[in-house]
Amino acid sequence: MTHKVHYGEYTLQHWIDLMLSEDIVMPGYQRSFVWEKDMVKKMIENLKKDYFVPPIIICQYVKDGRSQNFILDGQQRLTSVLLSKLGVFPDKTKFTNLEEIKDENDDDVDDIDDDDDGLEEVGTLDDDDTYKAICDWQYKKMIEGQRTIEGVKKVLKSKKEWYLDVDYQVDEQFFKSHYLGFCYIQPKADIQPNEQMEYYSTLFRNINEQGVALSPQESRESLYFMDESKTQFFNPDFIKPINIKTKKGVTHVDFARYLALLSDLKKNSVNRVATGVKKDFEPYYEEYIDAVVRDLDSLKFGKFSSIFPSTELSQRTERLKQSIADLSMRAKTYNSIIVLDVDFFGLVYHVLFEGRQIDMTRKAQLRADLDNKANKFKKSRKHSKNPAGLIYLRIRIKDSLSIYKKYLV
Predict the structure, then answer these.
(1) How far apart are CA 360 and CA 407, in angstroms?
(2) CA 3: distance to chain centroid?
(3) pLDDT at 166
(4) Dihedral of the alpha carbons of 358, 284, 212, 137, in degrees to the nearest 10
(5) Residues 219-242 as b or e (16 or more Cβ within 10 Å = b)
(6) Residue 406: how many CB atoms within 10 A of its CB?
(7) Is 402's pLDDT higher than 70?
(8) Residue 38's closest CA among 189, 164, 205?
């Protein structure tokens, strides 16, 4: 029996009602809102003129007898409809926290240029684009649990500085008399929840190869959900408040990057980490995520269940969380990938991968050793210019591990 697919259309008002009532919701892997104000206006104009607008794709996700309707494709369109109803647009600078970051050392922010220094530029941040500024806003941040437009408007009144007023030149009749189509996917009866999510996440990624491209991190979010039990492993809550600031803006630390590189290290050696990677690290990271969610015995990354026995993973994770807090890394914004890597590689490897503990009675000296090493790397012109080059990436991994090893209990 195959998946069932239904087609139809709803008025714009009905789509708004579905969002407010949470009869349709966004799965965890859905990206942030990336459209610009002019794109929203253009879509509203197209709807006014009854031009074709691609349908919304909704999928039914069934788990433990409970059914949810996920927005698989069309979040940008639905959000635009809601914004036009409210006459606002989010001030994206507020939701990237650029205004809140106080930098005393702006000159230390990673600035990678294209000058030829005689080294192979392997996986530079500019090529990889892993650390891309992301506006952490979805329409649910505006709704805040409100079930009516009137309720949402009251919320907006208290957050005027977060939203820009926009006249989309629409009235109530517009939402009642204009339609937006849908495609509704129902999974076959005998498919398991993890198989449903694998199918939907693959479909999501295929769909989003067009339009405004997904950032690497957004793309990987859909892979995480191929096995929901591992979502917190790839992107734990205690990592989310830790950010990095580059010339491209501010974004969250990419924890999956550390997991992939350190799994490679554990299976092979530091001199073979990321072997074969050229300009783009993203296929390497996605290969790792795929190996984890399928629990494959990878020649490159090893086997997830062997590296992280289920009886120990939660305890190791809690220890890592506490270590990050003890070393004052929690809710921190780094302004250099070099400093971030020196802090993280050794800590994550020894605590999470090896199940060891750090002697926090000596954390002041540990902190000084980490800072001294990072400053030494940053004073090296070639290292600071091309921090994602494999030669320097491997050096940071090796030296970070060596520093933390001196402080193991």
Answers:
(1) 8
(2) 29
(3) 95
(4) -10
(5) bbbbbbbbbeebbebbbeebbeeb
(6) 12
(7) yes
(8) 164
Write the pLDDT tens digit of every residue in 38-76.
889 989 999 999 988 989 999 888 877 788 899 988 899
Does residue 123 have a pLDDT over 50? no
Q: What is the pLDDT of residue 105?
A: 39
* Sign of the four-CA dihedral 365, 369, 370, 371: positive
DSSP annotation of 54:
P
β-strand pairing of 243-246 with 333-334: parallel
β-strands 56-63, 66-73 pairing: antiparallel
232 to each of 2, 229, 341, how far by Cα in Å? 31, 7, 21
Query: Tokens 């610009």 sit at which residue?
Result: 36
List of residues 6+ apart from 150 with CB closer than 8 A: none
List the alpha helices (DSSP H) in 12-109: 12-21, 37-48, 75-86, 92-95
Helix, strand, or coil (residue 21): helix
Q: Is 193 exposed, middle or buried (0-12, 13-18, 19+ CB in 10 A)?
A: middle
CA gap 88, 94 in Å, rounded:
14
Exposed/middle/buried for residue 161 (C-beta within 10 Å: 0-12, 13-18, 19+)? exposed
How far apart are the C-alpha atoms of 91 and 135, rounded to whole Å?
Answer: 9
Alpha helix (H) residue ranges in 124-251? 125-128, 139-143, 149-157, 172-177, 193-207, 216-224, 231-234
Mean pLDDT lowest for which of 49-53, 176-180, 392-396? 49-53
For residue 99, what are its two tokens?
A: 């205004």
**CA–CA separation, 13 and 81 (whole Å):** 9
In a 13 Å sphere around the CA of 4, the CA atoms on its Cβ side amount to: 7
What is the pLDDT at residue 286? 86
> Three-state DSSP class for 59?
strand
Q: What is the DSSP secondary-structure string of 64-78?
A: TTEEEEEEEE-HHHH
**Which residue is associated with the tokens 């087609």?**
7
Confidence of residue 134 (pLDDT cuts 50, 70, 90): low
Q: In the structure encoding, which two tokens stand for residue 177, read together?
A: 């008399």
Contact 224, 235 (CB under 8 A): yes
- In the chain, the N- to C-terminal Cα span, in Å, equals 56
Instruction: Report, as an integer, the average pLDDT of 129-140.
Output: 67
